[in-house]
Amino acid sequence: MESADKRRRCVGLFGVHGVGGTWGAIATGLFASKMVHSAGNDGLLFGNPSLLWNQLISVGAAWVYSFIVTFAILQILDLTLGLRISEEEESDGLDLSQHGESGYTL
């Protein structure tokens, strides 16, 4: 489990993909310029507020979609495998019941 936690931190699930992706999409609506990419569109700072509005709607749709799909997946997992551990496992400690080792030797 330790390696899975390191992978989550390594790829920065929320910090990089969630926050960074959201900011990148919104920043495109702010800073886009035809001077940089003639086939593109100008953003808010170059006189086109509609691009920012479109980017905000897209970001909102992506967040709502991600929430709904994640919620659905968690509901399916809860019905099939369960998301909670037993009270006995929780009382014994998750390090022992889930990982087979003691996290603290007192």
How would you characterize this protein structure?
With 106 residues, the chain is mainly alpha-helical. The protein has 5 helices and no strands. It has one domain. The longest helix is centred in the middle third of the chain and has 32 residues.
Supply the key terms.
mainly alpha; single chain; about 110 residues
Query: For the terminal residues, how far apart are their CA atoms?
Result: 23 Å
Radius of gyration, whole Å: 22 Å
Please write the string of helix (H) and strand (E) elements.
Answer: HHHHH
Number of alpha- plus pi-helical segments: 5
Structural class: mainly alpha
Strand content: under 5%
| Mean pLDDT over the residues | 87
Described by the principal axes of the CA atoms, the overall outline is elongated
Unreliably modeled segments: none
Count the domains.
1
Number of strands: 0
How would a textbook summarize the main sheet? none
Task: Please estimate the helix content.
Answer: 55-70%
Quick structural overview:
The chain has 106 residues and is mainly α. It has helices at 2-11, 13-31, 49-80, 87-92, 94-99.
